[in-house]
Each structure stands twice: as structure tokens, then as C-alpha cells.
Design a protein that fits this description.
Helix content is 36%, strand content 23%. With 134 residues, the protein is α+β, with helices and mostly antiparallel strands. The chain is elongated. The protein starts with a helix and ends with a strand.
Length: 134
């Protein structure tokens, strides 16, 4: 048993130190307000820039998931219905987990590419590919 631990210690000491720091991916807080029966996301453009996805894709996702019509008005997203901020945060987090974060390395460095008739989530950090279900 001592020989095993000795070999394990030697192997462990020969491994390089971790040189990369992994930053935690944080979404901006959703800034929203109600105007009549509409919910307006004020910082929609900041969210789109952070997740690096087209505004139309995120708008379509919100519209489909929340079952309300949505439209982009400048840098805001207008949802025709009163939606709670908790519900919006949950839907945004689900979108990020499905269409932004790599399934293998959990990094946000991904892009969407069409491969035939299937949309693929391709990680630029580790090279993993997974089908996108949006």
C-alpha cells in the first residue's frame, strides 16, 4: 500500500498547476416594468449581448414559453401580458442552460450553427457539439 501512495504522490506532484481561472457566468438582472397590460423588459439589449444570441431568437423563445405575443421595440422587449419577474428569470435561466451553456464543460463560450436541418450548439472552448432543442 505504501508503494501505491508513493506513486500517487509522485504522479500528483508532476501535474501542472491550474493556470486558468474560470469566471462565473452571470446574467444581468432583468429590469422590467408594467405599462397597462404589457410587461416591458427595459434592458433586453444588455441581456442579448451577454448571452450572445440574436434578439429575435430570445424574443421568440419568451413568446413561445410564456404564451404571449412579444415584440422588440428599440432596445426593449414588449410582452403583451403581465408576467411576474420570477417567471421571466426562470425562463431566461432555462434559455441560458439550453442555448448558451456548454453541456460538457459548462462554459458560455458557445455558438449556434445549422448542420443540415438541425441546429447545433457548438462550444468554442472544448469543441463539444450538442443538438439544440429550441
Amino acid at each position: 500500500m505504501d508503494r501505491y501512495e508513493e506513486l500517487l504522490d509522485r504522479a500528483l506532484s508532476s501535474l501542472p498547476e491550474k493556470t486558468q481561472k474560470f469566471e462565473r457566468f452571470e446574467l444581468p438582472q432583468i429590469e422590467m416594468f408594467y405599462q397597462g397590460n404589457k410587461t416591458i423588459i427595459r434592458n433586453f439589449d444588455a441581456i442579448v449581448q451577454k448571452v450572445r444570441r440574436p434578439a429575435q431568437l430570445l424574443s421568440k423563445y419568451f413568446s413561445k414559453e410564456l404564451a404571449v405575443p412579444a415584440s422588440i421595440d428599440g432596445n426593449k422587449l414588449v410582452l403583451n401580458g403581465k408576467i411576474s419577474d420570477r417567471n421571466l428569470k426562470e425562463k431566461l435561466q432555462t434559455f441560458v442552460d439550453m442555448a448558451v451553456i456548454c453541456k460538457e464543460c459548462r462554459r458560455p463560450d458557445t455558438r449556434i450553427s445549422d448542420v443540415g436541418s438541425v441546429k447545433m450548439l457548438i462550444c468554442e472552448a472544448c469543441g463539444a457539439r450538442s443538438p439544440l432543442k429550441i
